[in-house]
Design brief:
- With about 200 residues, the protein is an alpha/beta fold.
- The chain has one domain: Flavodoxin domain (Rossmann fold), CATH 3.40.50.
- The chain contains 6 helices and 6 strands; from the N terminus they run E-H-E-H-E-H-E-H-E-E-H-H.
- Strands 1, 2, 3, 4, 5 and 6 form a 6-stranded parallel sheet that branches.
- The radius of gyration is 19 Å and the shape is globular.
Length: about 200
């Protein structure tokens, strides 16, 4: 029997006082209510990698940095990804770009989707991130705009005050779980398939 897919919720900012904890906890609590996938939070604070400075491209050799190797191993263990990202200067945080630069085969043939917050709901950042990932980027995403964000940071509100976001989150989770399971099965089929044997000449 095919095991349930494992999906990582990747927290993509590391600065003190970040907003990311609020939507991450909210999404994780929704995701835990499902019985068709296993979810875990992956926090970039736990992977303090240096700026990418490997001597060889990753398609030629794995990274030499120990933290980068641990990051890659964690990502490789997952079947799908939900990136929680802010928008910095119309793009993604530098720490996330750096983390993505350390990935290669670990994320191939796996789906990724996104929850963004900030100006325009981080739509520009999500667009950039979808283009740079080697994963299969999905289009069902969640956008938390400045109205909701400021309401929570300064107005004493919580995610519960914006119930329409729950609907977007559930649709996004439906999609990532389906794709994660489908592509996991496809990768498993590739792994068990044996190459055609060439008869030996006599």
């Amino acid at each position: 029997m095919q095991k349930r897919p494992k999906i990582g919720i990747v927290m993509s900012t590391t600065r003190p006082g970040r907003f990311a904890d609020i939507p991450t906890d909210w999404l994780f609590n929704i995701a835990k209510g499902r019985n068709d996938a296993d979810f875990e939070i992956v926090d970039l604070r736990d992977y303090p990698m240096p700026f990418f400075e490997e001597k060889a491209p990753l398609h030629q050799a794995p990274p030499q940095n120990e933290v980068a190797l641990r990051w890659g191993k964690k990502i490789a263990s997952l079947d799908g990804y939900i990136f929680i990202t802010a928008e910095y200067n119309h793009s993604i945080p530098a720490v996330l770009k750096n983390a993505v630069d350390y990935l290669h085969s670990e994320i191939r043939r796996k789906p990724a989707t996104f929850l963004g917050y900030g100006g325009t709901g981080a739509a520009r950042a999500i667009g950039h991130l979808g283009e740079m990932l080697l994963a299969a980027s999905l289009k069902h995403t969640v956008h938390i705009g400045m109205t909701e964000m400021m309401g929570m940071l300064r107005g004493g509100k919580s995610m519960a005050d914006y119930p329409y976001l729950d609907d977007y989150a559930k649709r996004m989770l439906d999609e990532i779980v389906w794709w994660a399971g489908t592509l996991k099965e496809g990768r498993s089929s590739d792994e068990v398939a044996e190459p055609a044997r060439v008869p030996r000449s006599r």
